[in-house]
Amino acid sequence: MRLHHHAGTLIAAGIFIVVSAAHAEEERRELGPHVHGHGTLAITIEANNVQMELAAPGMDVVGFEHEAKTAEQKSAVETALADLKEPLKLFALPDAAGCAVASADVKVVAEEHEDHHATAEAGEAAGSKEHEAHHTEFRATYALACADAAQVSWLDFPFFDRFAGSGKLDVTVVDANGQTAFEVSREARYLER
User: Fold this and answer.
1) Structural domain count, the chain
2) Where is this region: Disordered (predicted)?
């Protein structure tokens, strides 16, 4: 943090830090380890192979993050899984790279909250299910075979058009030059390497 010379500014900054820390703590209690609207994407480029790993909270993908119960919710999950199996419709790469999908593995993972274990164990079998707090997360692993992966100089993200609940993706790109971190969002969805 830059040092300020004015005592007033310092005090104001100090108050702001305390407030935002309290807010972050409150948010973490409510949301658990992940934050709504925020997913991660890891991209590894090796020779002419591109590997992508996506993790996105259920809220971002289908608008809820408990286990799908109604027919409508189950249908939303099925549709999302089918769409996630087509990475090139969600992550646009340069045509010059000539990439095609070699494999796409997509699943929904339920994450339990630590602090709810006791409740779940203590409750009788029927009631305990209600107290288990699950956050669902969609995870996808893609392998792309490219004619010339060196041409992957940019990516665009139609992902944000398809999944309205998603606001940001933390993207990590690993290639022969090392690892680079990017953040793309609905407002700034173009990544240039």
Assistant:
1) 2
2) 113-133
- Residue 7 belongs to what H/E stretch? helix 7-31
Q: What pTM was computed for the model?
A: 0.73
Is the same domain home to 88 and 171? yes
Task: Enter the tokens of residue 124.
Answer: 């009788």
Biggest CA–CA distance in the chain, Å, is 62
- Are 80 and 107 within 8 A, CB to CB? no
Which range marks the domain in which residue 26 is found? 1-31
Q: Quick one: residue 34, left, alpha or beta (phi over 0 = left, psi -120 to 50 = alpha)?
A: beta
On whether the CB atoms of residues 10 and 139 are closer than 8 A, the answer is no
Contact 50, 146 (CB under 8 A): yes
Do 186 and 160 meet the contact criterion of CB atoms below 8 Å apart?
yes
If asked whether residues 13 and 40 sit together in one domain, one would say no
SS3 for 130? helix
In percent, the amount of the chain with pLDDT more than 70 equals: 70
pLDDT digits (tens, 9 = 90+) for 27-58: 433 444 446 779 999 999 999 999 999 999 99
Q: Do β-strands 154-156 and 134-146 pair in parallel, antiparallel, or remain unpaired?
A: unpaired
